[in-house]
Amino acid sequence: MPSFSEILSKPSVFADRNVLSPHYVPEALPFRENEIRRIMEGVSPALKKERPRNIFIYGKTGTGKTASVKHVMAQFERHAGPGSYCYINCRMYNSRYRVIQKIVKELLPSLDSMGFGLAMLYERMVQEISSKSIFLIVVLDEVDMVKDLDDLLYTLTRSNDELKSGGISIIGITNKLTFKEQLDSRSRSSLCENEFVFHPYTASQLQAILSQRARLGFKPGTADDSAINLAAALTAQESGDARYALKLLLKAGEIADEKAIRRITDREVEEARRSVDRDIAFEAISALPDHHQLVLLGIANLFIDKSKNTRLASSEEEDFFITSGEAYEAYARVCRRYRKPRRSSRWYREYLNDLEMLGLITTVESGAGMRGRTRLIRLGYSAAEVKRIVEKGFSIIEQKG
Question: Domain 33-198 belongs to what topology?
């Protein structure tokens, strides 16, 4: 019979596995000094009893946006002054009501806000900030996930007109470079934002980041330099996503422990890559809104059909492409199957942009030889795997319905 004592006594390559978690925020964030300074300069007026301008931060997943903001806000909180902040994960708090409720709970921990209407929560928020002259910075991570985003941004920015003292400012974090285009003119005019982009890490930067974490996370001599370099090179080649690179190292360490070996080599990194790719694909697809998933399912169906019907000597999926028009027709068919009203071609183009940004598809413009110009689409993952993930999610929804 196994016991915890037996499991805990097994040798391990890890010294502190938490250090290798993508959620760990180190004391120093290499290669993000300039971005951190800009965030600090942006929020510093709150420490002088002045309301900062809103800040919007863009960049692909794993470029250090959230870690940098949390790093700055940790220092901000330790600094004596009237400034305060509230961090909100908009995947969890994805509506105006839930965001305002979260802010009120942070300001008034003893208040049971359950059952309060939006108007009452808003009044309590304004009253608390004004009475204590608080300069509150609301960090909205993955802000594009909020369903009624225009209403939320308008409510938060316009609340400053009602405050007798103190103020509310926003730091919005998003992976979507086209985020602003989805806001109505009222919200855009209210934001007056200061914005900048976090660019992906290079291979040499990723190598330095992984080396730093490996020294803290693994026992001395257990991680080969070549394994760390390989994890950095694979990540730079794909996306420059530091979170992905850290997941590779963490999984490689877990594989080494499972094999009861004392060193992490290139072989463990390669094995980890296959496992992490599957996990990331599942997480990314499962978290997508319905119509993004339906577009992806339509594309996957086309790739599966082409794979079955092709007369080419090679039948590998990476040899195929489909046109944007074909994909839209496939999306429309999937919508009919699941009884969802299809969205317009304008929204469809936005969905393609989002899917490409997440690495789920890649697109290129067609060149000479095709009538007109169109986008050519390839899948970033196995079509069969994409189809399985999406259909599983929708079958669960149908069963609940």
Answer: Rossmann fold (3.40.50)
Question: How far is the C-alpha of 193 from the C-alpha of 154, rounded, in Å?
Answer: 13
Which CATH number among 1.10.10.10, 1.20.1290.10, 3.40.50.150, 3.90.1170.30 corresponds to the domain 288-400? 1.10.10.10
Q: H or E segment at 98?
A: helix 96-107
**What whole-number distance in Å separates Cα of residue 327 and Cα of residue 303?**
10
Which one, of 117, 85, 87, lies nearest residue 101 by Cα? Answer: 117
- Let me know: does 244 contact 238? Beta carbons within 8 Å: yes
**Which residue, among 103, 143, 95, has the nearest Cα to 121 in the 3D structure?**
103
Over residues 342-382, the pLDDT tens digits come to: 999 989 988 998 888 777 888 887 655 555 567 899 888 88
Q: Is residue 129 a contact partner of residue 162, using CB atoms and an 8 Å limit?
A: no
Residue ranges per structural domain of the chain? 33-198, 202-283, 288-400
Measured CA to CA, the distance from residue 106 to residue 115 in angstroms comes to 17
By DSSP bridging, strand 55-59 and strand 361-365 are unpaired
Tell which residue, 46, 41, 44, 40, has the closest CA to residue 133.
Answer: 46
Residue 192, Cα to own-chain centre: how many angstroms?
24
Instruction: Give the E-state strand segments of 30-122 in sequence order.
Output: 55-59, 83-89
Question: Which residue bears the tokens 């965001």?
Answer: 99
Question: And the tokens for 360?
Answer: 């789920």
Distances (CA, A) of 262 to 13, 175, 224, 245: 6, 38, 11, 21
Closest by CA position to 63, among listed 205, 269, 216: 205
55 DSSP β-pair partners: 171, 194
Span 245-275, pLDDT tens digits: 999 999 999 999 999 999 999 999 999 998 8
CA distances from 146 to 110, 118, 291 (A): 26, 16, 16
SS3 57: strand
Token output for 359: 């690495």
The architecture (CATH level 2) of 202-283 comes to Orthogonal Bundle (1.10)
